[in-house]
Model the fold of this input.
Amino acid sequence: MEMPIPDPSVLARKDRVVARLQQVLPADAVIHEDAETRAYECDALTAYKCPPMVAVLPSSTQEVSDVLRICHEEGVPVVPRGSGTSLAGGALPTADCVILGVARMNDVLETSYADRFVRVQTGRTNLSVTGAVEEDGFFYAPDPSSQLACAIAGNIAMNSGGAHCLKYGVTTNNLLGVTMVMMDGEVVELGGTHMDAGGLDLLGLICGSEGQLGVVTEATLRILPKPEGARPVLMGFDSAEVAGACVADIIKAGVLPVAIEFMDKMLIEVCEDFAKADYPMCEALLIVEVEGSEEEIDHQLALITEIAQRHDPVALRESASAEESARIWAGRKAAFSAIGRISDYMCLDGTIPVSSLPYVLRRIGEMSEHYGLPVGNVFHAGDGNMHPLICYDANKPGDLEICEEFGAEVLKLCVEAGGCLTGEHGVGIEKRDLMSHQYAPADLEAQMAVKDVFDPAWLLNPAKVFPLDVSEARRAERMAAE
Ligand SMILES: Cc1cc2nc3c(=O)[nH]c(=O)nc-3n(C[C@H](O)[C@H](O)[C@H](O)COP(=O)(O)OP(=O)(O)OC[C@H]3O[C@@H](n4cnc5c(N)ncnc54)[C@H](O)[C@@H]3O)c2cc1C
Done:
């Protein structure tokens, strides 16, 4: 993965930049010793590593503004960071950057049950947003599997989703407003405490903008009353294609489960071994969950199991208790960690139309044989959001490169099937160079023109999202301006 050469003039200014940052932040919030900046050298795409020049940990919007103003004046690139769980390398530093981590900004600022929102600092973890309101019967719906660790900051930047987003939508559908600091230090408010603020939908633009346009410091999130109950059903099939066809039929029938999750044989075995979720051993497993009152649950599950029966399942089992439901989800949510126990892997993230699931799964199987690398599939099948996990050996020379080539082919397949390079993990550096495959030069130019408006000096989160060759002229202009 090519990264831009660090700017020597920025590196030469390190001492001055550190001294200026120490004037606006407490001493322990400016990390600049080589041994300590290493803690920020990568995110969850661990194949790529690069310690930043400096890392800062501000505690308030004002401190973020001060940091950005200084970096803007000094011409220093800034990489915003939440919890560093990005699987796309979105928070990967460059050697000449300041990492701006919001982990210390984790307060709940305001809660309104009447208007159903909670306003938090964006360093707060996803799960602890629900933690702040659940005693009062509410929850925050988007539920990435990394929700114990990932921050609302990264969720907004990547427009993150999760298993239950089939019904509730992804982050953008649950975000009401943000406080954002522009690269020059100006603080702006977008949206509010209600759905759909007037004017251009700038909030929609910010959500999913991968730290390219500003640093989000506070967020107003929609919260919902907890459903009366929920129950998953496990469905096992003797082929991935048949499971894919079953998903397509459930969606077509107009029933709306909260989640439809798919796992293939490799993932079933690995997760069972890890979480003892009592999964049936078969070629493909679906976890379908519905919510509501007992009567609503019974009614929906009757329709869903009737559809499943038409596809000759080898196993069909409704959860019989809250403990069993928790176990079923513990297995699925541990999928990435569970496979990490047995192999290095690269987690892909692409979206396809649900009806093309059987075709795409077959093609991925064929590619796996062609490239000689095993692949496990686990994904949000109801949304067509795929997560093929390609296993490789990081210690075997050349294996990572083969894995990357295989991954690129899978993502191109998603585009060819009528889908998209990203589902919920974003572009980052991982899919940066594939953007030219999905977008024509004019499309990329339009996207870069948006960045020009928010970040004219191109200092925010460099080398991500836009292929290096297409952003070259803009980056060269910045260097020349210094
Ligand atoms: C085991 C595992 C499971 C996962 N499961 C899911 C899943 O189910 N669904 C899903 O969507 N993702 C999933 N992810 C990916 C990841 O957790 C999400 O992308 C998450 O939203 C990243 O949040 P973070 O706080 O860790 O962000 P980081 O990794 O720190 O940063 C992610 C991006 O956000 C930008 N950013 C960070 N803070 C700010 C800010 N304050 N303002 C502007 N931009 C900012 C960064 O520059 C970067 O581009 C998973 C990851 C792992 C490791």
